[in-house]
Each structure stands twice: as structure tokens, then as C-alpha cells.
């Protein structure tokens, strides 16, 4: 059974799988059986999400099944290199409305990771994504000892840019032709926070904005 953590009472050590809760917002660890619901939701949001979706630059890459993709994600989580959470807004057993994933996790002397997210268009603009990003950031810095979290955003993605602006992520620079998205190599803007910049946490920072 996953450990359940109620923010801001973060444990001293990280153990996966873990459920993160803050008020009505619940982040549950991805499970293989979630894949069909995720696929259905992403299909419904295809027009909303496809401009920001990573694609393969190699046309020879074989198409994987949903079950293969799900098993791969779970395996990566067990290795500790990716932590995929499903976003729910009405309790532990409510429907999935999005995803918040910490990837490219490097411990040792770097203690860094990349953070990505998406949300059902029906729930956009309700501060759910900033809250989820804040919850993951606060937990992983407090319980995993991460020092640096990076978010990469296409310059055209105004909705995602509002998320980092609201949370106070620092602009670090421009990476031309950084990730293959929607069929071409796309420029990205890089936003970063370190533990020193987070201070007492992003959740209190959000709360102070009313």
C-alpha cells in the first residue's frame, strides 16, 4: 500500500509509492490500471495537448501498446528515475484530471530533476496545476533532498508559462531546438528553483497569494 502524506507534514525520507494530499488535491502514484483512463482523457484533450507533446524524431521507432507503456512507466518509478503522479481533485478515489511527473532524477552531488505536467482542459485555470507542482516540489525537496527542479516550456505555451510565473520559478535561459515536439525540434525556455529559493515552501507561497 502506498504511504499517504498530508502536506505540509513531509516525512524525513522518501519511499515510493507515495500519495500526496493537500486539501482536496490528491496526487496518486501511477498504476498500470490507470493507463486506460489516462489514454481516454488524453484522447479527449488531443487538440489541447498535442502542440506540446514530445514526439520521436526517428520514424522507425515501433509503436508500443498501452500496456507496454504503462509497464515501462511503473518500472522507471521503481528504479527511482521517474516519479509519475496522477492528479485528482475530489479525494483519493476521484477521477484523474491530469498528471505531474518528476523525471530525469539525479541524486548524488547534483540532486536535480525535471518536472512536467498536463491537465484536462476542463480543469485549466483553476490553480490545480500550480498547486500540484508546488506539492511535488515541496515534497521532493523536503523528503528526497532534491536541490534543483527544472521546468522546460515552449515559448508559445502561455498557460504553462503562467504556472512558473505564479510559483516564482527563475528564468534560466533559452535552449534552441531542445526537444522534438509535434514533429519538429522546438525551442524551450528553462525555469528553475533551488532549495534556497524555495525557502519555507511553494505551498505557503501560493497560499499568500490568496
Summary tags:
210 residues; alpha+beta; 7 helices; globular
Short overview:
By secondary structure, this protein is of the alpha+beta class. It is 31% helix and 31% strand. The chain has one domain: 3-Layer(aba) Sandwich (Aminopeptidase), CATH 3.40.630.30.
Number of helices: 7
Ranges with pLDDT <50 over ≥5 residues?
none
Cα-atom Rg, whole angstroms?
A: 16 Å
The structural class is alpha+beta
Topology:
Layout: E1 3-6, E2 18-22, E3 25-29, H1 35-44, H2 46-49, H3 66-79, E4 83-88, E5 98-106, E6 112-119, H4 128-143, E7 148-153, H5 158-167, E8 170-181, E9 184-194, H6 195-198, H7 202-208
Structure, described:
- There is one protein chain.
- This protein is of the alpha+beta class and 210 residues long.
- The chain has seven helices and nine strands, in the order βββαααβββαβαββαα.
- A nine-stranded mixed beta sheet has the order 1-2-3-4-5-6-7-9-8, with helices on both faces.
- A hairpin with a 5-residue loop joins β5 and β6.
- α4 packs across α5.
- The model has no long low-confidence stretch (mean pLDDT 94).
Amino acid at each position: 500500500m502506498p504511504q499517504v502524506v498530508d502536506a505540509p507534514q513531509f516525512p524525513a525520507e522518501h519511499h515510493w509509492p507515495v500519495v500526496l494530499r493537500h486539501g482536496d488535491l490528491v496526487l496518486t502514484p501511477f498504476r498500470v490500471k490507470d493507463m486506460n483512463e489516462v489514454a481516454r482523457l488524453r484522447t479527449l484533450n488531443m487538440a489541447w495537448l498535442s502542440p506540446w507533446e514530445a514526439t520521436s524524431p526517428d520514424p522507425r521507432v515501433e509503436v508500443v501498446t498501452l500496456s507496454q507503456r504503462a509497464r515501462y512507466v511503473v518500472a522507471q518509478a521503481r528504479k527511482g528515475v521517474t516519479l509519475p503522479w496522477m492528479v485528482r481533485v475530489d479525494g483519493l478515489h476521484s477521477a484523474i484530471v491530469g498528471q505531474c511527473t518528476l523525471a530525469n532524477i539525479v541524486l548524488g552531488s547534483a540532486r536535480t530533476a525535471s518536472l512536467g505536467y498536463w491537465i484536462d482542459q476542463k480543469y485549466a485555470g483553476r490553480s490545480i496545476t500550480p498547486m500540484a507542482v508546488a506539492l511535488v516540489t515541496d515534497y521532493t525537496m523536503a523528503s528526497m533532498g532534491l536541490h534543483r527542479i527544472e521546468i522546460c516550456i515552449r515559448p508559445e505555451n502561455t498557460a504553462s508559462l503562467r504556472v512558473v510565473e505564479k510559483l516564482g520559478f527563475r528564468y534560466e535561459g533559452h535552449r534552441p531546438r531542445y526537444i522534438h515536439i509535434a514533429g519538429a525540434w522546438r525551442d524551450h525556455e528553462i525555469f528553475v528553483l533551488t532549495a534556497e529559493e524555495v525557502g519555507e515552501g511553494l505551498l505557503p507561497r501560493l497560499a499568500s497569494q490568496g
